[in-house]
Amino acid sequence: MSEDYCTRDAGRHEPQFEGTNHESFKESPIVGSKALSIWKDNILFGHGYYNKKKIHLYSLQNQTIQSYLPVDEENDIINYDYAIGRKHKLFLVCKNAVYHVGIRDVIKLAVINSLK
C-alpha cells in the first residue's frame, strides 16, 4: 500500500514528494497569506497582503484561484483580522468572534459556480 508523504533531505531545503505528481511552490499563490487549510488537491488560503477581506481557493489540479468574500449569518461581510488553518478547516478571527470555514463547503460552492 502506497501513501503520500513528504520527506526532507538534510542537505536540501526543498521538500521531496513521493506518491504525487505535484511540484512544490517556488512562491505562494497568495502573497502574504499566513494561513491555509488543505483537502485533496485544494488549498484554502486566508487573505494575503492584498484583498484583505477575501479567502482564496487554489486548485492544484487546475492551477486556478477562486476568491470569495466570507459572510456571516446575516450576509454581512466578515472583516477578519487574521486566519488560522488546521487540516481542512480555516478559522477567521475577528475582534469579538471566530468563524469556521470548511474547505469542503468552499469546494462545493466552486463546483456549483462552475456549472452556471
Helix content: 10-25%
Sheet having the most strands: 4 strands, antiparallel
Q: Uncertain runs with pLDDT below 50, 5 residues or more?
A: 1-13, 15-20
What structural class should be given to the helix and strand makeup?
mainly beta
Describe the structure.
The chain is mainly β. It has one domain (about 30-115): Thrombin, subunit H (Beta Barrel). It is about 10% helix and about 35% strand. It has one helix at about 105-115; strands spanning about 5, 15-20, 35-40, 40-45, 55-60, 65-70, 80-85, 90-95, 100. It has a four-stranded antiparallel β-sheet, covered by helices on one side. Strands 7-8-9 form a three-stranded antiparallel β-sheet. The protein is globular, with a radius of gyration of 16 Å. The protein starts with a strand and ends with a helix.
Brief summary:
The protein has 116 residues and is mainly beta. The protein has one helix at residues 103-115; strands at residues 5-7, 16-18, 36-39, 42-45, 55-59, 64-68, 82-86, 89-93, 98-102. The N and C termini lie far apart (39 Å).
Keywords:
116 residues; mainly beta; Thrombin, subunit H; four-stranded antiparallel β-sheet; three-stranded antiparallel β-sheet; 1 helix; disordered N terminus
List the helices and strands and how they pair.
Elements: E1 5-7, E2 16-18, E3 36-39, E4 42-45, E5 55-59, E6 64-68, E7 82-86, E8 89-93, E9 98-102, H1 103-115
Antiparallel strand pairs: 1-2, 3-4, 4-5, 5-6, 7-8, 8-9
